[in-house]
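Quick one - inputs below.
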Amino acid sequence: MKKRILGLAATIALSALAVTPASAHRQWMMPSATVLSGDDVWVTVDAAVSNDLFYFEHQPLRLDGIKAWAPDGSEAQIEHGSTGRYRSTFDVHLTQKGTWKIGTASDALMGSYDLNGKTERLPRGTTTANLAERLPAGATNVRTAESNNRNEIFVTVGEPTTTVFQTTGKGIELVPVTHPNDLYAGEAATFQFLLDGKPAAGLTVTVIPGGIRYRDQLGQIDLTTGADGRVTVTWPEAGLYWVNVTTPRAEQGEEGAAPAQPQRRASYVTTLEVMAP
Amino acid sequence: MTSPMRTILIGGTLSAVLAAPALAAAPGTMDVTVTIPRLKVAEYHRPYVAIWVEKEGAPAKTVAVWYDYDMKNGEGTKWLRDVRQWWRVSGRSMTFPANGVTGATRAPGTHKVSFSRAQLGATVPGQYTLVIEAAREVGGRELLRIPFTWPAKAGAGGRAAGTSELGAVSISFR
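Output:
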């Protein structure tokens, strides 16, 4: 029993690192503010994996791999990091004016191989880089697909800028048609999503307003990216919104069926703050 | 006490005489009267107030920002974003202190401030809106709009009345 629980905890910790869209839990980062003024500006971020948004009630989001990017595109440190039972927290000293990006991106390789007449799944933690060493000798018929997960937030000191939106060409990325730190209740905002650097049609976009605990209806907005990878959301009210963009899920095969060709997967998470007009 | 008063009067008279025909035709100054309400609250801080001019198709022009500009290390600028409509349309692209725009917070009561046509950015004839927004630490926020036309007629030019963070606000031209 104890062992099972430990195993479960390990699985959850892993899923906290790499967003597994199959998990019902939502991973998020919540900044203390997204629109900031002043000369010596800091932002504090809470990071967690939970069901309710934005309440830390399940697992902390691990801080390994979380970085910040300054408005000029340079990398910056997160400071005062701490991981508690239910959440992690850290600060970023916003030493430049403009828009900052804070987040993490991780890549994994999913798939299977045949060994001694049996089909085995690739172990968790496999990447393109370590595939060769993870594969046991004699493995044949190796089928893989890459999975990219990105969780990032944006905060702006003074006027919004766009340098931190430079894309890497890997996984799902956000291109601001409307700047994510210039959102107001009652207004429409448009974002473009790229998959591996190209505008991606048919991505699943889920938008959920924060404050779930104190209302009956989830208020989820379901959208799909158009031909140009764009989606438009009209914000019903001011507040924080959790946005999750994923590659569409294939129909689940029969239980116990041998894994077919693994599917290319990517997931994107951000938290947006919509201001009162 | 008497002497400077007299100087001002003389100056005023002189310019009035010299510019009399032009003045009658087109006022060059807007007077804005702003009432900051006296509030019965346990913790009172004077509000941050921004006054700006909007014209369709043109960027907003800030004419006054009253904030805690004299705190050490410019700490008072941290709360400028709470004057949130102004921050969006104008404040966030400005640097502080802003020359000719920055001012100290004002106590409850009625305050008169004056702006030239050039200061208002109202050089082109047309429809404008004067917007005034107040946000108070541990308090609320309120925004009022008063439309006006330039060229303006001398005399009263419009008014608006707040219900929480602002009292009566009126404009007149001279």
